[in-house]
Amino acid sequence: MKTFKITWRNIRRSPYQAFAAVFVMTLTFLFISFFTFLLYGSSKAISYFESRPQVTAFFKQEVKQADIDNLKNELNATNKVASTKFVSKQDALKIYKEQNKDDPLLLELVTADILPASLEISTIKIENLSDINSMLKDSPLVSEVVFQKDVVSVLTSWTNALRSIGLGLIIVLSLVSIFIMVTIIGVKISHKKGDIEIMGLIGAGRWYIRWPFMFEGIFYGGIGAILGWLISAGVLWYSTPFLSSFLKGMPIFPIPLIFIFGLLGIEIIIAVILGTLSSFLAVLRYLK
Amino acid sequence: MIRLTKVSKQFRTGVFALTDISFEVEKGEFVFLVGPTGSGKTTIFRLITREALPTVGEVIVDNWDVTKLPNNKISHLRKKIGVVFQDLKLLMDRTIFENIVLPLEVSGIDSSTAAKIVEGIMEKVGILDHKDKFPIQLSGGELQRAAIARALTLEPDILLADEPTGNLDQATAKEIVKLLADINEKGTTIIMATHNEDIVKALSKRVIALNKGRLIGISGKKPKVHTEHSEKKSAIIDKEKEKEEQNEDF
Q: Chain A closest CA to B249's CA: distance in Å?
């Protein structure tokens, strides 16, 4: 308890240094939070695209149902197709109406006749997509083929790049935080050199002198983590309505509360580790 | 209680601060350490408190060989020795009470007990009225008393007073010396470093004279051991030893 009191007094008596330490920690954890939300969103987006039909073939207007059934059978005969789903002109109209229910003008202009029937196909293996795609493109019945593989692969490569860059930045920011904290705590130790010397001379043990500085680092880390998390969670909460309408159809929002609070828990653990490490380095360097 | 045997201390610059010093101080004794500035008085105190190690020789304090004392025992040694530093070493941003209570805080004594002990000592040295003042608000004599009070809080077996009358007028100096003599009467071993001849003459105690780091003479006889060890102090030390042993077991 006494150690906590000393720690709090040390923090109160040098508010600008305390502010600098908390500020740098807040920035680090703000970035970690945003980056985690971004990774969560992109992984959800990838899952969404992967769960969608991988190839969609839109048929020409004059194609008959029997020809479509033949094509379906041919595809199934390749043993590369996992499932097929036929979407008729009427089904397409229903989907269109559902997607544009808030815009009556768009609904008035469209009838089932102008929408194409389509066949949604999922393959057993992702590498079979190209064969199925070529087969459909060669068919005289098909007017257009939408191939999801490109979307998924582009998104996956972006997510991987994002993950690497983000992790790199987190490591750099954490190192910067550690160096700044070591410097700040080091300055405080140097500033209190006289007091520390006197305490040593009147019989204070090594750890009696060290603990308040250790707790100070942990305090800065903890407060930084909580502030960084609060800001990022606030921004996320504020922008959720806009983002969910922008990414309509993707099941990303709202981000579950258990995920958000789990992130806070993990960030506090990281903060304690960073704070302890920084203080320990400062104490080793300046309190020999 | 304190024994220095053939002690020499050479600084990194090559200068010898002490050369071949041997003397003994009995338990409960009051000894003056005299000599001009630079004669090695403060260095002897630094060796006794393990602030410095001798280049050669042996320093024994209360059966502890200070030169071989492991680092984790230094704080125990320093709790047995109260020191009134030449520059007082009071913390300027703390009140007089906070300065004096510091050794008790360091020893883990609870706040209410510590407050009672400190108030008792402040009353004894005559500065209870200045309890909540900061060092800058006190006179030289009052600061000296505050430093003595802090040195006494743990009821040390030994009190080292380094030039405690150095910057004081004659009357105040006499008061301080009388205070130290009273403390000695109650059983604390005192070594007082000074170059004030009047004070040395006024109290007919044993004198260890130094010059340029060499022992030039010891005058007076060693008294018989006549003091009883403070039970309270023993209890604190025993408690800390127990705690230390428990920590070592872990």
A: 17
Domain ranges of chain B: 2-249
Contacts of A107 (CB under 8 A, 6+ apart): A97, A100, A101
Alpha carbons A213 and A236: distance in angstroms, whole number: 35
- Distance between CA atoms of A247 and A69, rounded to whole angstroms? 35
pLDDT at B49 over 70: yes
CATH number of the domain that residue A96 is part of: 3.30.70.3040
The reply to whether A119 and A42 lie within a common domain is no
Q: For residues A41 and A61, state if they share a domain.
A: no
Task: Report the alpha-carbon angle A125-A127-A133, nearest 5.
Answer: 105
Query: Could you report the per-residue pLDDT of A36-46, keeping only the tens digit for each?
Result: 998 888 888 87
Closest partner residue to B103 (CB to CB) among A195, A203, A205 is: A203
Distance of residue B34 Cα from the nearest chain A Cα, in angstroms: 23
Backbone phi and psi for residue B32, each to the nearest 5 degrees, phi listed first: -95, 135
**Domains contained in chain A, number:** 2
Query: Helix axis angle, A65-77 relative to A129-138, nearest 10°?
Result: 150
> CATH classification of B2-249 is 3.40.50.300, yes or no?
yes
Asked whether the beta carbons of residue A203 and residue B107 sit closer than 8 angstroms, the reply is yes
SS (H, E, C) B77-96: HHHHEEEECCCCCCCCCCCH
Q: Are residues A161 and A143 in the same domain?
A: no
Amino acid, single-letter form, for residue B164? P
Helices A15-51, A206-246: axis angle to 10 degrees equals: 40
Judge whether B59 and B48 are in contact, CB under 8 Å.
yes
pLDDT band, residue B228 (cuts 50/70/90): very low
- d(CA B151, CA A209) in angstroms, rounded, equals 19
Chains A and B form CB pairs within 8 A to the count of: 42
pLDDT at B232 over 60: no
Q: What is the pLDDT of residues A142-176, one digit of tens each?
A: 888 887 666 767 777 888 888 888 889 889 989 99
Instruction: Kindly tell me the sign of the dihedral angle through the C-alpha atoms of B217, B219, B223, B227.
Output: negative
In a shared domain, residues A124 and A182: no
Q: Is the ipTM of this complex over 0.85?
A: no
Nearest to A202 among B76, B93, B106 (CB): B106
Looking at the predicted structure, is the pLDDT value of residue B180 above 70? yes
Looking up tokens 């003008």 gives A105
| pLDDT at position B72 over 70 | yes
What residues make up the domain containing A87? 53-147
Distance CA B180, CA B189 (A): 10
| Global model pTM greater than 0.80 | no
Q: Does A39 touch chain B (CB under 8 A)?
A: no
